[in-house]
User: Fold this.
Amino acid sequence: MSATLVLSVLGVYFLLLIAISQLTGKKGDNETFFTGNRNSPWYLVAFGMIGASLSGVTFISIPGAVVSDGFSYMQMVLGYLLGYAVIARFLIPLYYRMNLTSIYGYLNERFGRNSYLTGAGFFLISRIIGASFRLYLVAMVLHAFVFSVWNVPFAATVAITIILIWLYSFKGGIKTIVWTDTLQTTFMLLAVVLAVVFISDQLNWTLGDMVQKVQESDYSKVFVWDWHKGNYFFKHFLSGMFITIVMTGLDQDMMQKNLTCRNEKEARKNIRWMSYALVPVNLLFLALGALLYLYGTQKGLLLTTGIGDFPIQIMNPDTHEMMGIRKDLLFPSLAINFMGPVVGLIFVVGLIAAAYSSADSALTALTTSFCVDFLGFKNDGTRVKQRYLVHIMFSVVLFLVIVVFKQLHNDSLVNTLFSAAGYTYGPLLGLFAFGIFTRRKINDHAVPYIALFSATAVYFINLLLSKYGGFNLGFMVLLVNGGITMLLIWLVPGNSSQSEALDEAIVNQED
Assistant:
């Protein structure tokens, strides 16, 4: 597939995104950028949030990880359902009742400014890491299959991907993102469906044949009952629940989209329907992974070992010799090199859509949180130029982190992402849970130190358990981290002056 053809298609795609940004960002003030003027249709937000929830990590890593993990990821997806129910029941009513622009404003009212800035600060760290992982995926694929043909440096590829996001998001902000995410979710799902159709055609399988072949394969195992393993059922289920609560409900990025809905009722409806849709969509990605391995094996294109840094031996399309690749590159390698130009092009656009649907909103959320939480911006037409500068600043930060990350990447991206999230989102989980489910006052000045200690302590706890007990906390790092934060907040004597009225409102909030 010609690199020039790929660039031409991507050029048209991004012109479409920029056109959408021109239509949605005409006013371009802070209210539009931060809240989308609170008039987004709930069904549009729900559909767009599917793509943002999945991202490029799911698009590539989940199908590739099937060779070693089977369908065990569905254990987490089942946990997601319970997590979204908690968000709809407790968090959305709270955010709408307080009329928040940044959700971390709750911590300011409930505990004090130190807790507020700690929560916002941990979000910034968490989202910078997460967005960097996602954008790295795009840069990695674009560089490997397009820009390397012209000997373009990897750093230049990264710069291009970030500049494109900035061009269509700097003015309209979250209002633009709601609409562009809808388009990008469509392309992402289209790429998966088209790949499945291609495989069925090449292997002469009907839909029923594909379902049967996947069920009979070694890849379709869902439940893992060995408690020593990181993907043990209860570890995955509980982690899926709490990852959803923190990475959606306590995350400014995801909640900023949700808060653009017209009212609390529509926002809760958005969360419920989006959570239902994620079950079949994730199952589709896992099925695609199994089908990719079955297709590649039957066509003599790949061999698998399931172990090591390069567990897949795939045919080099130029020399026809076998070469080792990571699991993350299975889908792009087959789609671009062996499935024809149409599937290859749709894959590239789907990957860009999947990664950008989360990365563009992450850049917007980082800008919003820093402007509102740290600089005190209001939802009006003032300080717009300063907001542009903050947007540029975070674009540069993401660029630097991605370039550094390229030197460190040595594992499946989905596991790396959630492992990092366990350490950075854990204190947020502890803070919000303590605030919502207790009326106790806390020592606001101690919160930054407690949060740092908790994240550090759980890292060493997991290290010791793995080394001496043969037990890996896996994704449950998040839960343990949040628990330590809550315990320490409880034990340190409180001396802050939180509002008693707010405490009473939180405890007695209505459904």
